Amino acid sequence: MSDQMESDGRLTDEQLMMMFAHGDRKRFDELFDRYRQTLYAFYRRRVLHRERAEELVQETFLVLLRSASRYQHQAPFRTYLFAIAFRVLGAERRRTALRSFLFVSSVKTERSQEHSVEDVLWLRQALGRLEKIDREILMLREFEQLSYEEIAQLLRLPLNTVRSRLFRARAALRACLEGIATSESRLLAKGDRT
Amino acid sequence: MKTPLHAVTPEEIMALMDGELPRERIDTVRVHLDACVACAEIVKEIRQSGSLLAKWPVEDIGLTAVAKIRSRLSAEFVTPRNANFAWRSVIGKRGIQVGALIASVMLLVFGITTPNLLRSRIAANEASAVGSLRALNTAAQTYSARYGHYPSSLAKFGPPQTGRPTEEAADLIDPLLASGRKSGYLFVYQHVLRSDMRDAYLIDADPIAPGKNGIRHFSTDQTGIIRMNGSVLDGSPEPISRQPSEPNDPRSANHDGPMIARTADLKLSVRNLDNARDSMNRILGRHGGHIAQLSASSENNSQHVVLASLRVPSDHLLICIDELKALGRVLLESQRGEEITQQYVDLRARLSNARKTEARINQVIEHRTGNVKEVLEAENESARVRGEIERMESQRESMAKRVEFATISVTLAEEYRAQLQPPEPRTATRLHNALIDGVRQAWESGLGLMVWLLSVLPTAALWFTILFYPARWGWRRCRTLQAGV
Fold it and tell me: pLDDT class for B91, splitting at 50, 70, 90?
């Protein structure tokens, strides 16, 4: 969160955002290029449909664009962006819940499009067993590479809570993965016997 | 994962690995890790977790998607900022679909119910048309009784612009019906002179927009019969042939004329009540009438009033009314005519049957063909039938009297003259009364508020429960979007 340039001579995210807020449209393209894949990965791991993840990326940038005039250089841009992404994701989840309630869930997965399908399913399953807030902290740390401080700001939690919950989440994930592996091996062994 | 008790916490070890440990603690934790096998195990486990999560890579966002997003963002640059803040973003795509679905269902329901509503309206209009024809028949009879002929147009049944009812505006029906259009029906009145030189009338009622306001055609004439599409309507009165020259003669009406019990109300303001009473008595004497009931009120500090119920021969009713009206200023005048022909005919028939029954029973008694018990029963029955006959004769007489003698309810009110008021109550009494009134009003007001709250609270609670969560959701959604997030 510094106004100085980054070490490679590039402008910081915050500088780009401030310049865009003052009317420099090209800076927004730079921000888009920097964060499009990060945001896509953020959504892709949290929603089932690739197209929906792309739409949410678009929605996030639209919100960012519309709110640029109100941007204040008080928090790191990355935290600001992920805060928007979290809100957009929350809205998406509410819509999905409403859709499931009204029209009966028609959720379909895209297994064929994901890398190493088994690993991903395994991980999804294990992460799904974690407490919601622990899961988000773990994912933000491991996938989005946010610092403890950024996570704390984003989720509005004390820093120590983030740290202890992250440790707990890692332990729980390991336990879950071991549990899943054990139960699957048992099933396989049972199948072999029959 | 093990969490042994050591100089450093496992969270610190994790923070060191994540590069999040405060600088002053880094050396301490590193030294401990070099010496502690258990803590080194924690490091290993954390690395394993990280390597497991690394197995979830995400493919690159497609170039097509990137181009699409860029295009959308460019479009956003072109349009004014926040111009696209639309309800679509609040309610979402699915919300629009749900809205469209609800609208479709509502349209469907509307489509189903509209014909029923139309049918209901047609039925109501037709019922209203029949009722209007009945009202017109009654009005025609009254008009004829009052002025000796039927009116030449429908407007003459209606109320006058100003002043008293006249032959040109008899005030017998409401102005809407007198205009010829009511409840989707058009009423056409024709005054005709029959071949026997007796006057008659014909009224047609047709829907203004056939199929929309009504379907059936109705008509009536001086006989009182209401016809629907040419056939007699159920519940229509028996045909009557009226003779205007002798409208209320019970003996002739028994056979071929209507029997109408006529009543009138008259309220007059007079200068001198005693003089007016004398004049009223003289009018009654001249026309062979009498006072059925009279009450006078003459309390201090209030208007002096005489309430009287007068009975005058029906033939003299109009003249009597005119003469009574001359006694003072008319405040109210109304006339009504109740047709009791049917009741009278029924009563006569029942009376005739009862007499025949009585004759047969008397025959049995005279011949004494049965035993004593049977004779006694016959005598009892004879007594019962005789009682019935006498009761019915009394009713018949009463009906005949009602037709023969019209009733005029007269209210004579003396013009009010203010009098010197007695002195007001003492100041203490007035204060006492004011206090009592104040307390009573406060109590009534509090009670009224409680009653209102009790009546409103359940409904308010219901709607609050229903609307709270949607409203909170909508508010949060709007606030989120308006805040730019």
Answer: low
